[in-house]
Write a structure and sequence with these properties.
Layout (H helix, E strand, L loop, with lengths): L1 E7 L33 E6 L5 E2 L7 H10 L3 H8 L9 H10 L1 E3 L2 E3 L2 E3 L6
Amino acid sequence: MGREIKRVAIDFDWPMSQVWSGFLNPSDSDEWTAQEPPAGEGWQVWETVSEGSPVTPVFSTPEALAHHLSEKGDAWAQARAARGMPERLPTYEQALAFVMDGWAPTTMVIGGAVLGPYEAP
């Protein structure tokens, strides 16, 4: 569980932090399968702690997404900051490494240090 990169349509417009309807099972049927958002050339961060929801806008390049993460963070970081609980934003290099890797855990504890999702050692 954590954050992952999804390649979605550039014009994909789903509300931030709202679970994607294609990941919600409406009937508890064993025959149901999840429906991914529309695939495309865009780059977007999704949280996977719940069923899954976007936490950044869609960007046309991995570099643009990394700049956004290093300057503004994702929806979770922005919500915490609005409540007076800011977190460390990743450097551009950390953010780009995450974007290119495609996945990061929500939190890591290494040697007693608590690291956020974009602060891979």
